[in-house]
Design a protein that fits this description.
Blueprint lengths: L4 H6 L14 H9 L13 H11 L5 E4 L6 E4 L16 E6 L4 H10 L1 E4 L2 E4 L2 E5 L4 H12 L4 E5 L3 H11 L5 E5 L4 H11 L2 E4 L4 H13 L5 E4 L5 H16 L10 E4 L7 H13 L4 E4 L4 H14 L13 E4 L7 E5 L3 H14 L3 E5 L7 H6 L5 H10 L2 H4 L4 E4 L7 H7 L4 E4 L7 H8 L1
Parallel strand pairs: 3-6, 3-12, 6-7, 7-8, 8-9, 9-10, 10-11, 11-12, 14-15, 14-16, 16-17
Antiparallel strand pairs: 1-2, 4-5, 13-15
Length: 441
């Protein structure tokens, strides 16, 4: 539960030393209560007070780290139930299950999903390795999965198999998912010794909660909760109840990220996709499917990117030249703003035309064409400045520039500020680009 400024002030040294950058200790306390500064900025606060305040002011949902290196991910840390209240913090991760009998078939399919959308690389984030009862086969599957370069979940309830598997891949910081009412002590030792996240499950929500309490009492708070697989209805209810208990009721025993294995909720790949979409919204931190094709990845990753994008910040493309249809330095140039939706709509039509085009994305604050023009962020002056800063003239030889039709008013000013360039006015709508470019060619 969030602390009030006065609660924080009572435990501060009250020297008004200004070392923290605030004029008084009370001002510092108010900033801490509002989340504007960290407690550690006070150099004179006692260790006991810092520990007390840190525990009391910690977010209701714990943030945990899985994976290592470029496969490291943050989970949890959420503070709201609904995205419109505040931005969600840690995006859902998607996993595909493999077993000894299917691993050789699925690993190439997993590696095939790898593309970029709005500056974010889209891949199957995690591989869930299932234990089918044969320890040797399980360990061999773990080795094969590790070779793909993804973070792993070791889905196993056998302590001996779990211990050997963890030893093989502990450097990659996998999740050991298999602790329950009967084996939690053995699994707690394995996970704690390796310094990895432990997945906890139970026959029902009460059993899960009781096991979490025992693990916390044993000193382990590096956990992730499995919502179960009795039915889609129960899994959904558990995911929502866990999140609400943590955020609304302040129950820290529920304040952990959640794993949802939709592969155990349905055998139908399309239904799994639908369930994965549901749990992306509510509230799966890791969602496990039995498989994933490129066609399934496109809508699912697109949904995730929309949900986990800050609604107060526009989605932007990196301002630079994007060669389309094999364009080289002699291809005609077209320019627009860096608003992601504008980029994808226009880019699609440029590709459909088949005409090589150097597509120039200018820095316009992430706004649409008319909005950025009205705000003065997409003008002859800003475009000219961008051309100089990005050395556009040094990268292309063609001096023909196509403007969006809705800002045709910029044509004269641009020709004056960019001497040597022939400025053309393109169509008002992107759909007209195909015909326009073919006629221009």
């Amino acid at each position: 539960m969030a602390l009030k400024g006065l609660d924080i002030f009572k435990l501060l040294p009250k020297t008004n030393c200004k070392k923290c950058g605030s004029p008084t200790c009370m001002a510092f306390a108010m900033k801490v209560a509002q989340g504007g500064i960290e407690l550690g900025k006070c150099p004179d606060i006692s260790a006991d007070a810092l520990a007390q305040l840190s525990e009391a002011s910690a977010p209701p949902m714990k943030s945990i780290t899985i994976g290592a290196g470029d496969r490291e991910y943050k989970l949890g840390g959420e503070t709201v139930l609904f995205r419109h209240d505040k931005t969600f913090v840690s995006k859902s991760l998607y996993a595909v299950s493999v077993c000894p009998g299917c691993v050789d078939e699925k690993l190439p399919e997993i590696k095939a999903i790898d593309y970029e959308r709005i500056g974010e690389r889209m891949i199957v984030d995690i591989i869930n390795v299932e234990f089918s009862g044969d320890k040797a086969a399980f360990l061999d599957t773990v080795k094969k999965a590790e070779g793909v370069g993804r973070t792993l979940i070791l889905d196993v309830t056998d302590a001996d198999a779990a211990k050997e598997a963890v030893e093989l891949v502990k450097a990659g910081k996998p999740i050991l998912n298999g602790a329950n009412e009967s084996n939690w002590e053995a699994f707690n030792k394995i996970a704690s010794d390796a310094g990895i996240v432990l997945g906890v499950g139970g026959k029902d929500l009460d059993g899960l909660y009781d096991t979490v309490q025992k693990l916390e009492a044993a000193g382990n708070k590096n956990l992730i909760l499995d919502v179960g697989s009795a039915s889609a209805k129960d899994a959904f209810a558990n995911a929502v109840q866990i999140r609400r208990a943590a955020l609304k009721d302040g129950d820290r025993g529920c304040g952990y990220p959640a794993i949802v294995n939709v592969a155990k909720l349905s055998d139908d790949p399309l239904q799994q996709l639908a369930l994965a979409s549901v749990f992306t919204l509510k509230y799966g931190s890791i969602i496990i499917l039995s498989g994933m094709s490129y066609a399934q990845a496109l809508p699912l990753f697109g949904l995730r990117q929309n949900i986990y994008t800050d609604p107060q910040k526009p989605m932007k493309m990196e301002p630079k030249i994007y060669p389309i249809n094999g364009a080289d330095e002699n291809a005609v140039c077209a320019i627009t703003v860096d608003f992601a939706l504008t980029y994808f709509v226009v880019n699609g039509e440029l590709e459909r035309s088949g005409v090589p085009v150097n597509f120039i994305i200018a820095d316009a604050g992430g706004y649409s064409v008319l909005t950025s023009w009205a705000a003065g962020k997409f003008s002859a002056g800003t475009i000219t400045k961008f051309f100089k800063e990005a050395d556009i003239e040094g990268k292309v030889k063609n001096r023909t520039l196509i403007l969006p039709g809705k800002v045709a008013v910029l044509k004269g000013e641009l020709e004056e500020s960019l001497p040597g360039w022939k400025v053309l006015v393109g169509p008002n709508e992107a759909v007209g680009l195909v015909k326009y470019l073919k006629e221009l060619k």
